[in-house]
Amino acid sequence: MSNVIRIFLSHRGFGSLGNSVEFLVGEASSLWLGNWIEVSERESGYFEIVGNNMTEKNGDWIVDSTALGFGEWDSEVVDLDAGNSDESQCFGISSHLWWNDVDLTPEYIRAPNLQRLREALEHVAFCAWCPGDI
Prior knowledge:
By secondary structure, the chain is an alpha+beta fold. It has four helices and nine strands, in the order E-H-H-E-E-E-E-H-E-E-E-H-E. The strands form two sheets. It has a seven-stranded antiparallel beta sheet, covered by helices on one side. Strands 4-9 form a two-stranded antiparallel ribbon.
């Protein structure tokens, strides 16, 4: 496995109802400050997302497992999901975006280099959502 690189995110969207409630009551500000993803370049230009601090991986009877998605993006970004996934149809969250020459999904990002990946992340906001809410 190649080196794991932590990238701190300047934007975080809110996807699930629980996140929206936290945002509305003011508790979310502490949740999104310092959010990050970790990527590992598996091959040239293919960065796998191997970690993050926004999702719950091991759900239990109190907390469901959550997944990453894209809750927001700016006008320079194309939504390639466009209603094709359950999360897009139910919550308006995308699972596939394109910015210039960067292909973004919650599992991997294809970019010419790490700098271009970082630039693309300035145009999107990750969110955590619960597949069990569908």
